[in-house]
């Protein structure tokens, strides 16, 4: 006599096994995003963070909270003062505009083109202004052609790169002259990962704003200026001291990282 119940039990057992195995197969390590581990330092800020873990889950949405608008040249780590096709004077840095003393202009780029972050007043809109670089082969005069259309201004406004008493300047046809900030204010390259840039700007009093440009991600932190140390409020490591050397244009940290000013 044939027992017709056995095939049914076998199918049922196979179904249970499938339910148990499916979740294990569905969650494989390859689903997690690959994280660059070339820099483990806190000042380099490239560890596996909670945001990285959340971004590996389809239902999660993570934001970077970026303030500084990233530019492709930041990934290339092209120093405008060292590349053969670049100006002798580095234009990369934080500039002041006498017509907008409470604002700032941050220029980053390479020997051919770049991008400027511009803000006229503390609460105003932040604009991304692209520009190109042209060098006169006969006179070696360097001109920046800035496109102010995003701000409602003209395109290809010429700015001549120069130097006045060891201070880098950008002069415009209307007589306005921007001056590059000296001291601790400026654009720095991370020592542990040269493709990362750090922009230090002054706020009120001894308060500083620091934009940590890690490729396409930008993290904004605050800092307190001191002499000779500056205390940075890095994520997970507040009041981290950095020793400033104005002669070498560097900021050194306890983990061995050294930021170098461009």
Question: How is this structure best described in words?
Answer:
By secondary structure, the protein is mainly β. It has helices at 5-26, 50-55, 72-76, and strands at 93-97, 100-109, 113-119, 127-135, 142-146, 157-164, 167-171, 177-180, 186-189, 197-202, 207-214, 217-224, 229-234, 237-245, 250-253, 258-261. An eight-stranded antiparallel β-barrel has the order 1-2-3-4-5-6-7-8. It has an eight-stranded antiparallel β-barrel with strand order 9-10-11-12-13-14-15-16. A hairpin with a 2-residue loop joins β13 and β14. The longest helix has 22 residues, at 5-26. The chain is globular, with a radius of gyration of 26 Å.
Write a short abstract of this structure:
The protein has 262 residues and is mainly beta. It is built from three helices and 16 strands.
